[in-house]
Design a protein that fits this description.
Layout (H helix, E strand, L loop, with lengths): L10 E5 L4 H12 L3 E6 L2 H13 L3 E6 L5 H14 L5 E4 L31 H22 L10 E5 L12 H20 L6 E5 L10 H4 L8 H13 L16 E11 H8 L3 E3 L14 E9 L4 E10 L1 E6 L2 E7 L7 E4 L5 E9 L18 E8 L2 E2 L3 E6 L19 E9 L5 E4 L5 E6 L2 E7 L6 E4 L7 E9 L7 E5 L13
Parallel strand pairs: 1-2, 1-4, 2-3, 4-5, 5-6
Antiparallel strand pairs: 7-18, 7-24, 8-17, 9-14, 9-17, 10-13, 10-15, 11-12, 11-14, 15-16, 18-23, 19-22, 19-24, 20-21, 20-23
Amino acid sequence: MTQFFDFTNKVVVITGAGGVICGELAKSFGKQGAKVALLDLNEEAAQKFADEIIAEGGIAKAYKTNVLEKDSLEAVREAVNNDLGTVDVLVNGAGGNNPRATTDNEFHEVGLSAETKTFFDLDKAGIEFVFNLNYLGTLLPTQVFAQDMVGKEGANIINISSMNAFTPLTKIPAYSGAKAAISNFTQWLAVHFSKVGIRCNAIAPGFLVTAQNERLLFDEQGNPTPKYFAVQKMMETYYPEYLQMKPLTKESFELRDIALSEKVSLFETLADLAQPVESLYPVKMEDLGQSYGYLLYRTEASWDADEEKIRVIDGRDRMQLFVDGKLMATQYQAEIGQDIFVAGEKKATHRIDILMENMGRVNYGHKFLADTQRKGIRTGVCKDLHFLLNWQQYPLSFENTENIDFSKGWQPEQPAFYAFDFKMKALKDTYLDLSGFGKGLAFVNGVNIGRFWNVGPTLSLYIPHSLLKEGHNRIIIFETEGEYEESINLVNQPTFKTIKGENL
């Protein structure tokens, strides 16, 4: 193969390098001997590609960068110059879309439901975000890094446009317009820098799989969705010169009526799963070294009256209060702090268990590093007007389900574990139907395959065949609401629940 350009020791700066397109570009530059600077707001994602380049003998370094902040870009430019040298090639790949700038409907019609987000409902801030990220996220890095490239032999700027700049897809007017602006800006740059030796071009990648569109084009199993075939048909219509291949699909199987093997309550096997951490007041989840899952708080208190008022002060995200093993209340973030009245024997000691669930974190915007993203009981628990003391915390990350002791007792209406055993010969993908269970987690041969909740819309979890074994297999379901079935079904299609009205 003829090599037209020699990138040996050339310094290549790539923004958006944590994504699929620019990450692969970075690896290609690395194979050609370039020194690659991978810039991304998600430094961890960029670092993965940098590690791959280094593992193959190349030179690469990842930098945390906000392409919308010039100060951030200037600081990174200085770091790149010190680490790798001045820039020879700039690839402006940072970009993306935003749900607030996307319509629900492909075509506007009379009589659409009130819940439909139409063109008239598009959010101004969402549109501004898309244009800023794509257009300003290209202009500002060019302002900063092109300073090193003026008069430099072999200097190049490559902007990532999109086929949407030429043939806009439905639902995404802001993204299509922003990418059209990139194509126009590239033409302007080519003229503007023509006297100082900087070559400027734009690339419009075809319709390929990225992190943003993967769930639109493929289902959990990796099989193509109707959206995939719609895009393929569009490409065949407008770009017949491009060869269209029939996509590969994977088979799945069904196995019904797998009987319950054994069960045990969480409170009975609690000591087998975690060592308690003792403290005077409740401790946040993160302060216990736990970043996900459940956390059980336990203490004892005597009742001063026939009925006591209990309040959890500042807890996140979901709380279940048990007194002597009985569920007293379930509260969510907006409800936590409300009074819970609990009857009990006066002067007697009662055991209090509070199961806190981390239901997720905000991973973007101003809340990304906010204190509100710390989970568990963040202040304390009051009985009447006084804070309860002397707590035990049981971190429940469920990293080893083999520690569950099913020989111990089970009580109804308590969080519990349910084990199902079955044998297999041929291994294929499948789906675990959880429509008969309330809320919790599922494990296949010790691997956590995800969370489930009967509020829907998804009532199943995907099981890839790689998690299954020839011979004996075990599924363990951790369920927190006391809702379970005596048997489970493995099905060949996901199970969904129709949601309407206020639950949409």
